[in-house]
Amino acid sequence: MMSAQTFPNLVATSVSEWSRAVTDSLTLVAIPPPTASRQLRPNGRPSHSLLVPFWTFMLLVVGAWAQPAGSGAIEGRVSNGAGGGALRNAVVSVVGSAQQTVTEDDGAGALNDPLRQYVRDARQNLVLGANGQPVFLTADLLERAQLRYVERGARADRSYGDWYPSFNASYHLTENLVLRAAYARTLGRPDYNFIVPGATFSEPTVAQPTITVSNTGLKPWTGDNFDLSLETYQIKGGSGSIGAFRKKIKDFFGGSVTDTTPELLARYGLPNDPLYLNYDISTQTNVGDATITGYEFAYSQSLFFLPAWARGLQVFGSATRLELSGNTLADFTGYSPRNYSGGINFVRPRFYVKFTVTHQGVTRGPFITPSVANGIPADTYTYQGKRLRYGINAQYSFSKAFSVYGSIANLGGFIGGNLRYSPTTPGYMKERRRQEFPSTVQIGIKGQY
């Protein structure tokens, strides 16, 4: 079976904008599940039937450009092939598949090298003036800029690929109780801001000169995902699930700062200049492995026992708990170990009202580089404080073609805090700022013609 995919317009004004578009488009690359056929034996009981394997293929070619600080361009080619099969009957369902993905990137970016604008002696050392500062090659500011900034002066290409299998199985313990197990290997491509070729050199006279370079050799992270859940359906008006999962991540991304060596200059395609050995190199790298273990619970209940005027009332709730372990440099921005939500729905033929409440636990942000001079200890991160929010949505339909609706997000407003701390930071020193978020009200009409 051949499948065609439709992708969004990838024309962008910045690399980050294009990267998001590419990420969105790549999420459309999926293996369609096989269509199950049901065959009955003469006694009326379903038979086991091995379904015909399926196959898909797709080739995606994309390009991008950006102008804010020197143009850059990258072209990515992604090809996918997938196949699989399934075995199903009335009690057991097993679906397996494997996808091969090959990615090729070819790009160029801006080079910002201040050393190109200074005078050198015969040994390629910087010539210093009477003030002790390097001497410029020219007094003309435009000519200096033309020497320092090289449009698409950094180039690189790379490719990677692998097989990504998946497996799903379900077993009906009873008509309304299902046990599910799943495994899938996934990949996470780096943001194109990290791999578009480019390098920025600080002035050689600063206290700690640094080369900030895009790591075009940054590999995607891969994850082995295991899921197990028990689900109930329509038992006295209630449906729920409880489950556990584990994601084992390899080669996760993280920032690093290291001393410059000739080997690193060659790896990142930088000029082999002895003066650069006095610099640090700052870039994104594959920092190691990490594991996320999670537990989930969700339940909804229709309140059938209420009087007729209250029919359509439903309560629901869910909870997620995450445990993270791995390299402390891993960039787990947005990681929140505790999240809860719930609410009440009141649905009738002409209208509905939905009230929701969500609790988001403390969410970890970016890693802060330790600094003795600034009093920043090791293992320091920024955090978003826990948040409790309420919301309400309502709609009334006058007819199939016309209705009015309204919603209030952050009902009553809430106060959010920004934190920064390490494991040794006292509690009274963790909060750095408080911010008040107001309610947002929307009212509108809907029409269908």
In short:
The chain has 449 residues and is mainly beta. It contains four helices and 21 strands.
Protein architecture, described:
The structure is a single chain. With 449 residues, the protein is mainly beta. The chain has two domains: 253 residues, TonB-dependent receptor, beta-barrel domain (Maltoporin, Chain A); 117 residues, no CATH class. It is built from four helices and 21 strands. The strands form two sheets. The protein has an eight-stranded mixed β-barrel with strand order 4-5-6-9-10-11-8-7. It has a four-stranded antiparallel sheet with strand order 15-16-19-20, with no helix packed on it.
Average pLDDT level: 78
Beginning-to-end CA distance, first to last residue: 37 Å
Q: Compute the number of structural domains.
A: 2
Relative helix content: under 10%
- Give the strand tally: 21
Order of helices and strands: HEEEEHEEHEEEEHEEEEEEEEEEE
In terms of structural class, how would the helical and strand content be classed?
mainly beta
CATH architecture term of the largest domain: Beta Barrel
Large-scale geometry: elongated
CATH class wording of the largest domain: Mainly Beta
CATH superfamily of the largest domain: TonB-dependent receptor, beta-barrel domain
- Report the portion of residues in β strands: over 45%
Strand order of the largest sheet: 4-5-6-9-10-11-8-7
Give a quick account of the main beta sheet: strands, pairing sense, barrel closure.
Answer: 8 strands, mixed, barrel
Low-pLDDT runs of 5+ residues are: 1-54, 61-69
Rg (CA only): 28 Å
Looking at the structure, the CATH topology of the largest domain is Maltoporin, Chain A
Helix count equals 4
